[in-house]
Design goal:
Helix content: 55-70%
Number of strands: 2
Strand order of the largest sheet: 1-2
Number of helices: 10
Shape: globular
């Protein structure tokens, strides 16, 4: 048991989502009115299309599935992925408190009555129209897609990485087509990921900065041998 706990201690990062859910519910209850309306005229050109609720809800198994997969297959990429999510989502939740915002794009009456529109109605009831900029849905979609692309275990199976990219694109677009987000929210979520990616994968990706609590990276034995020879000379 101790060996298992030591080997998978990086799974402790997953406890962040307990904090995330509590923080999200706090924001939802505190920010109910008197918020900045996020809107762009391009939003009016995007039609409501209820079928996009399917890729929208696929976000939940997508980011969770990638997390579990990396947890078991690559602890270092798992830690980097989780730290990217922790930094990005926490920034969004804090930003909502400082700059309360929301959108008023939801249709008052659905153009069609079908299973998908009823799914959207349930989604509207569960998730308010506040706390939208930058979009956590978009940020939290790009992060697992990048993690899949970075995972080296797929080898030449490019179709797996391509599938992740296509799914991520559909999920991001779905936020617009079911009128859950403005196009500005989408752009905000995507732009936010850029500095987070640079911080995690460029500044800390080659060292131990963003792999805690996994065990430190070990230098190849060949490097150690070369160092010993150099010291001897």
């Amino acid at each position: 048991m101790k060996r298992v706990l030591r080997e998978y201690k990086h799974a402790l990062l997953g406890l962040y989502f307990v904090i995330y859910v509590a923080w999200f519910l706090l924001d939802e209850n505190l920010i109910t009115g008197n918020y900045t309306v996020i809107y762009h005229w391009l939003d009016d050109l995007i039609p409501f299309c209820e079928v996009f609720v399917l890729p929208y809800v696929l976000w939940y198994p997508f980011f969770a599935g990638v997390g579990v997969f990396l947890l078991l297959k690559d602890k270092y990429e798992f830690c980097r992925y989780m730290w990217a999510m922790i930094i990005g989502l926490s920034f969004c939740l804090a930003f909502y408190l400082v700059v309360p915002n929301g959108q008023e794009l939801r249709p008052e009456v659905f153009p069609r009555d079908n299973l998908f529109s009823r799914m959207v109605a349930n989604l509207y009831a569960a998730d308010t129209n506040t706390n939208v900029f930058p979009s956590m849905h978009v940020f939290g979609t790009i992060a697992p897609a990048v993690a899949v692309i970075r995972y080296k275990g797929f080898g030449k199976r490019i179709w797996l990485k391509l599938s992740a990219v296509i799914l991520a694109l559909l999920i991001c677009l779905s936020t617009l087509f079911i009128k859950q987000h403005s196009i500005l929210d989408l752009i905000g979520g995507a732009v936010l990921y850029v500095p987070v990616y640079f911080l995690i994968y460029f500044k800390g990706g080659r060292g131990s900065l963003w792999i805690w609590p996994a065990e430190p990276l070990r230098k190849p034995e060949g490097s150690k041998a070369r160092k010993r020879r150099a010291d001897f000379i």
